Amino acid sequence: MSRRAARERRLMLACLDADTLGGVQRVTHTVAQGLAERGYEVHVVGLHRSTHPFRYVERPAYRRHVIHRVPVRTLSRLARGRADRRLAALLTRIDPGRVIMTSPSVVSRLLPLLPADASAIGHYHGSFEHARDTWHLASIRRHWARLTQAVFLSSGDADRFAEHALLPNTWSIPNPLSGWPAERSDLTARRVLGVGRLEGVKRFDRLITAFAAACRMTREPWELHLIGDGAELSRLRAHAHAEGVADRVVFRGQVPAAAMGAEYRDGSLIALTSEHEGFALVLAEAAAHGVPAVAFDVSGGVRSLVRHRHTGLLVPPGDVEAFAAALARLMNSPDERRLLGAAARAHAEGFRLERVLDAWESLFAHVDR
After folding, report:
1. Which residues form the Glycosyltransferase subfamily 4-like N-terminal domain (predicted)?
2. Entry pTM
3. pLDDT, mean of residues 315-326
């Protein structure tokens, strides 16, 4: 292999923090491992150390680096200068042909340090709706047109960023499932699943309220299982009590990734009530197990996962009453659950890891042309 060809197969994936439990990190490690197993030399870089490191891959085939030994926070000018010198030295040592940067803050930090001949790829894990309501859109407008490629989670999001951020270089690649289950749910358990960190942005309070209302529309004794941990636990317990469903809302805590397949198989519905989501991987994971979704229509990524009345039901963002009605509809209809669940599993085939890795390699080939 020529030196140029070897360099083109040398990749760096950079995160603000690469090892915290979170969606960006999970996707980064999954893609890194998949590409490493396809023969790429892959380096995962965290600009900051994680306070509570989470191990995503037991036997990584890629290399890991941490630049600054403190958790994410604003650095002094002196500390920032030291960290940038370490970054520059690492880039010189690795000499990657492609650098994938997973957030606007990482792009603005690394772009001035990259070798001129490296392919600079931005990979935005949020939705256009979220970017529009934060500083992200301004940062993307300012920096991302200078990238070799700007990657978004759905074609709808890519189109909106191209239009509103004036980007000439958009591309879309969905996030991957880490595996494909051999078994699927039989959808007979009277159990709704809510999966994610117990934090304000996930709005599990809305889910509890909607679930309580849905329970009043069905005669069957359904339960809501919330899988995840976080600062909102005590408040959500009190909210379940206030809504009269404390005996039906089960707080499961954090479940190991290896055990999540059993959780999906024991569920009959997955519910998503977040304020915003880029690409809610839990919806894809549930769909792979044949579990249909009820979700707020908050982004192109969610719409790419949940096809309304085909693989699940979409509800206008924040409309808790409509969400309750959608939940009750499927709680009361095992036949519709089975129909939607079968379509959801077929649709989730498109998010299998091998297909997403193929999409990344297609992007690399496009960049090389």
Report:
1. 22-171
2. 0.86
3. 97
The phi, psi pair for 194, rounded to 5°, reads -125, 120
Give the span between the Cα atoms of 243 and 205, in whole angstroms: 10
What contacts 28, CB < 8 A, 6 or more positions away? Answer: 13, 15, 18, 44, 102
Backbone angles phi, psi at 121, to 5 degrees: -120, 120
Closest CA to 194 of 183, 209, 182: 209
DSSP string across 150-211: EEESSHHHHHHHHHHS--S-EEE-PPPPS---S----S-S-EEEEES--SGGG-HHHHHHHH
The fold adopted by the segment(s) 3-176+352-368 is: Rossmann fold (3.40.50)
State both tokens at 160: 């909106």
Fold for the domain defined by 191-351? Rossmann fold (3.40.50)
Identify whether the C-beta of residue 46 lies closer than 8 Å to the C-beta of residue 15.
yes
- Is residue 57 exposed (0-12), middle (13-18) or buried (19+ Cβ within 10 Å)? middle
**Do strands 98-101 and 170-172 pair parallel, antiparallel, or not at all (unpaired)?**
unpaired
For the CA atoms of 120, 124, 129, 131, the dihedral, rounded to the nearest 10 degrees, stands at -60
At 86-127, the pLDDT tens digits run 999 999 999 999 999 999 999 999 999 998 899 999 999 988
CATH topology identical between 3-176+352-368 and 191-351: yes
Judge contact between 10 and 18, C-beta under 8 A: no
Helical segments of the chain, H only: 3-8, 23-37, 77-94, 104-110, 128-132, 136-143, 155-164, 204-215, 233-242, 260-265, 281-288, 300-305, 320-331, 334-348, 353-368
CA-derived radius of gyration, the chain = 21
Residue 270 has pLDDT above 90, yes or no: yes
Domain positions in the chain: 3-176+352-368, 191-351
